[in-house]
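INFO  loader      accepted 1 record
INFO  loader      residues=521
INFO  predictor   begin
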Amino acid sequence: MNTRKLTLIFILTGLISASLLLFLSNKIYPYSPDGAAYIQAARSLKEGRGLMVPVYGLNPIEADAQPLILWPPGYPLLICTLSLFNIEESIAARLIPGFIFLLLPYTFFSVLRHIMKDSVALVAAIICSFTSLTITRCLQVNSDIPFLFAALTSMALLFKSIGKDKFWYGLFSGIFAGIALAIRNVGYTIPISVLAGLFISLFFKLISKSRYSRSFLSYIFGFFLSYAPQLLRNIIVFNTINPYNMGLPRYTYFEMIKAFPAALTTTFFSHHPPSLKICILFSFFLIFMTILYVIKDSPDSVKKNSRVTKICLNILIIYVLVGSLVIIIFAKTIYSLQEINRYLLQYNWFFLSCVIAAMALFYERFKRFFKLRARWYVIFLIVLFLAQQFRILGKTIKDEKPYLEVFNNLKTISFYISNLPDESYIISNKASDLQILTKKNVHKFHKNLNISPEELAKKVTKIRPLVVVLAGSKMHNSLPKNWLSAYSGVIPEGYSCVHQDKDVVVLFHDKESKLVDNKHI
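INFO  predictor   done
INFO  writer      dumping tokens
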């Protein structure tokens, strides 16, 4: 395809992406517990205290911060780097996925053009970039989008390395693979898939031994070059190569496999998928179209008889298979069944692209039966799909509204919380929001925490004054049951209510001294 035309198309998609971000920026709740941890770790690093985050739960009472261990350090490092340009960390954390959103169409295209005709790859790239799940994640502080960008960039550079036999492409491909692994734990599926794909290609004589050796060595060298700092940190701080503990099992494998088809269909239907039977049937359709595209050769939609194409396909198929298996294994631990669609964001684009390529195969084979030219079918396909995605996005905006309201309500007390003495022990059911707003270490008040106000006071106030912030009375499932009475004016013994307004209650308990002045709230 003409380079000038491609440039104009990607400039146009970039402008559309920027407009979407501006329109939706105040309609999607941007933060999460994970996002708050990334921002806090970046702040801590910038202040010279290292990658430290608040203690996630109540224990240990004596400590407020601990080394970043539940999440790899890649995203906090990106946030910290951007914040060096005088950008506040919470804003920098939102700018990173937002900027990547502008680049996604070209990034997808750079990968897909190696396995599809440019026109088909372009349509697939645009559709993959504007799924509701992708748009939502680009508006939120999560590692999903930075990881996706790093993984796609690594793949695109590797495919160029295989095609052009250039050392530098392989080197930078490995570097981006290491960056991806430093951003998300599942990043190790990238080098595993790449090395397995190269080996299979060598076994079937799709790649010469000399080219295999150069691609293998340059990739491995680049990967360890970028991953070495994280490896060194793990050894120095945690005395182990991989300290990231995913917790104890919560689901059976049967539950995970049962949830997988529903997660796979959420990109196409809604974030509340239809019945399990429909999800299974639709998943079979996706798999059938993917297999059809992979095994069927067409000069008009797939690059005819290209060894490079087959090598690239080998790598991508293994990447999707290994990644999907990892999702099933890891989602069995602390991951939520309802969030599997989010984790499939890294692999859904491949199925979606294969469906588009398979449809192109059908058109080329039976185009004499179609009365309209291909471009009208393409336009219809894009409009139909995007209309469905924006319908899903509208539902997401509606679901996000209560979280935005709570966040805005907490802003009213953020100045007061920011000015509490350092020794104050702050605990909240909306800890992540308060961490971002106040830059304080706030302990997580879990909804299932079975501890009474009296027990908590005995545990904490022997050491330090206690401040409890309850938010979101309309969202009772986020509040511990033992504390709900505070909203009806029944204040626990030994506590004083220093603020109650806009769905927020602030309780204070201190046996030794009175640190709270009601006039300041």
